[in-house]
């Protein structure tokens, strides 16, 4: 508030400047943090140490201020008026000789308390300013920019270790190596397939024919396929023999196996 | 350890302790200092000695380690500072000019909020009525709320007076923000107390504030000093 | 400075420079080291030498300061490390266990994300099609988004092939997180295998693999190493 330093006294003869200052003070009444704050501001105009401020003069100043506000038809909050009433009481106490019959505190006691209140408010205000003038966190001094702690924040943090990363990569790159052993179905003839095939052909085999001639076309060329097809066809022939559909014979060990359909039934 | 045959019980205790101690042998102090260094560097918030002890291997002495670390960082670009019962590493304030990028725009506190904060800090634990008496004006709900939201003040114990009003005290976050080791390090606290400005002096007219209250108020500071 | 009357122009230049240099005299190296220490400590991201130079007073030598700082932190609880082209302060790896308490609330990255990340790290810059080819499955938008959000990968230059596909590369944040100076520091497959880091476990596909099959597989694997 710019007017706080202004000479501010409600003497009989106010200079234009003083009058302006006084009015500025009143217009700015909203800027005051209550009657005590206003009193503190007024006390500063006495230009003395708060400890030696004249409470009587201060009461006078305050009452004049309220008077002025009324003149200017400025509505003052209730607590300003309560303070005014109290100061008027204090003023009378200070001016009149003490009544020995009165039990209550003396005018001096009351004045001393008001002085204490003003000094305390002023002290707290200074303390607040000193506090704010201190080095402050994130303004003058700083905390760790990257705390290691994964903070107890609400959002989920995903993480992975270097090991995860490397293993993940290794997993992909060695996927083929890891593939379990599976039969290559392309070069496999299952017994069911052989059986199916032979069932269709068997009715034509009236005479003994080599089992090898029942292999699927082309399979005898590839050794892998031939092995699989031979085994499957042989197994299928055993199955058919068991069912009584065909007869089997073999001249000697490792000789070709021959089959023919059993038509005698 | 002197062998004293006249005290067999105590002696037995000693030998019972011995193997346990050797089993969990604490790392050398230099290593403990490294650990404290890593933990304090890793945290933006102050870390209490208890938490340090909890993180460090059994048998460590975090207090000795942190004090040694503090001496090591004297005069460096970062400092080891005490915040209440906890410790933190902070950049040296004289280097703040280098850190504009990190500066967090803090909400400007209103004059009312600053005064209220100062009153709570210097008078804690402090009731709302006391704040209002000192400021001579009622305290708006918003002001207290704002300070609580900033975690600079919190509720203290209730005052054992009629109505059992809540009290407010400042928090470790407050101490941390203003670089204070304890509430006793508030600027000018001693002078204010010596001048009697922190006393709860009752208004002569009312005269109904008990002496006990006044005593209780200074408890916090006196307990600590 | 020798006065040479035969070269008046150059001489004029010298004298013009001189006052400027003295005006902005660089602080002593010890002070520069303090500055670097504070900045590295307070910064959320690793800081490049250029950025350090920009923050420090004119005439400073951030490289010398950061190297001196690095030496000072040798063997300490934290270290000054290079992250790509930038510098940062990090916990000494052997003390990582002190931080573990805090990492509980983090979630493991999904396998798909890890694999995608790994492929990008090993093959950067790398297009989505390439990732899919290597993984053998399509990469979901979400996986890429998550990694970008975590700031572990970012868009690289577009590939100059039909369709101009975007490429992905890993970021300094990634390098920082995994303690790598460059992506080239990632160990190769051979090194992984030598270190026993490969999972020697067959992937369950059909679920009916006989013992012999499993053995055979291990053989196959060992043959290659």
UniProtKB/TrEMBL annotation, chain A:
Species this protein is from: Pacificibacter maritimus
Protein's name in the database: Segregation and condensation protein A
Gene3D superfamilies from the UniProt entry: 6.10.250.2410
Domain of life the protein comes from: Bacteria
Taxonomy of the source species: Bacteria, Pseudomonadati, Pseudomonadota, Alphaproteobacteria, Rhodobacterales
PANTHER family for this protein: SEGREGATION AND CONDENSATION PROTEIN A
Automatic annotation (TrEMBL), chains B, C:
Origin species: Pacificibacter maritimus
Top-rank taxon, per record: Bacteria
NCBIfam families: SMC-Scp complex subunit ScpB
Lineage of the organism: Bacteria, Pseudomonadati, Pseudomonadota, Alphaproteobacteria, Rhodobacterales
Protein keywords: Cell cycle, Cell division, Chromosome partition, Cytoplasm
Residue ranges with Acidic residues bias: 209-225
Sequence segments annotated as region (Disordered): 1-21, 204-225
Residue stretches of biased makeup (Polar residues): 1-16
Biological-process GO terms, alphabetical: cell division; chromosome separation
UniProt name for this protein: Condensin subunit ScpB
Annotated PANTHER family: SEGREGATION AND CONDENSATION PROTEIN B
